[in-house]
Amino acid sequence: MMTLVPPPVKRRYDATGRRQAAARTRAAILDAARALFAEHGYAATPMTAIADRAGVALDTVYASVGRKPELARLLIETAISGTDQAVPAEQRDYVRAIQAAPDAGSKIAIYAAAMAAIAPRLALVYSIIEQAARDEPGLAALWAEIAERRAANMRLFVANLATAGPLRLDLDEAADIVWATNAPELYQLLARQRGWSPERYERFLADTWERLLLAG
Q1: Which has the closest alpha carbon to 212: 175, 187, 186, 183?
Q2: 79 with 182, same domain?
Q3: 123 assigned to some structural domain
Q4: In sequence order, what are the beta bridge partners of 167?
Q5: Can you spell out the DSSP letters for 62-113?
Q6: Which among 212, 216, 210 has a CA at the least distance from the CA of 109?
Q7: I want to staple 158 with a disulfide (CB 3.0 to 4.6 A). Which of 13, 91, 174, 196 is the partner?
Q8: What is the pTM of this model?
Q9: DSSP-derived 3-state class of residue 213
Q10: pLDDT, tens digit, for every residue of 184-209?
Q11: How far is CA 106 from CA 72, 186, 202, 209, 212, in A?
Q12: pLDDT tens, 110-149?
């Protein structure tokens, strides 16, 4: 009598380890680029130097983050998200919290706290890219795009704020005030030159926005 042997059970492939390794590599590349751009500037930092600092091959850098302009974009996006990935505005936790907050004061407090957390990460990267954009056509286009997106996001914030109560100003003027007061350049002045802590900056934003934006 022939004995039937059951087929071997196929094991499911677990890609967790590979994903974790890729995330570590990506983080190392971003850290290396951020440090080298701060030390030498964008233009004076070749991609080979970034690969060497990160301890990976040059092809790995290109496969993980793209070429230099894409790397610059990713540095800005990850400074905003606080992760090694870009996160669209509508998917950010603080944006969802603002939208769900019941009153204008709560919305402002949430946004001020978020900006105080983001600003220390973003300010240095922002200034590096701004300076490089003056001589790099590809970065100039990126800079203009990021600036326009910031302005549009400020208008979305004040439009949501207006749903919770009347504003003292029209939406465009209110959005410009938010845009100016949470600019990375202002954080650089207050934190790096005047020694403000993120907590003091957060209080400043919340107080300024409540005084200037809210009616009554």
Answers
A1: 175
A2: yes
A3: yes
A4: 214
A5: HHHH-SHHHHHHHHHHHHHHSSSS---GGGSHHHHHHHH-SSHHHHHHHHHH
A6: 210
A7: 174
A8: 0.80
A9: helix
A10: 889 989 998 899 999 999 999 999 99
A11: 34, 23, 13, 12, 16
A12: 999 999 998 888 888 888 888 888 888 778 888 888 888 8
CB 161 within 8 A of CB 213: yes
133 and 69 Cβ atoms separated by less than 8 Å: no
> How buried is residue 126: exposed, middle or buried, by Cβ count under 10 Å (0-12/13-18/19+)?
buried
Domain residue limits at 37: 16-66
SS (H, E, C) 114-163: HHHHHHHHHHHHHHHHHHHHCCCHHHHHHHHHHHHHHHHHHHHHHHHHHC
DSSP-based three-state secondary structure for 167: strand
Same domain, 39 and 98: no
Residues 118 and 134 in one domain: yes
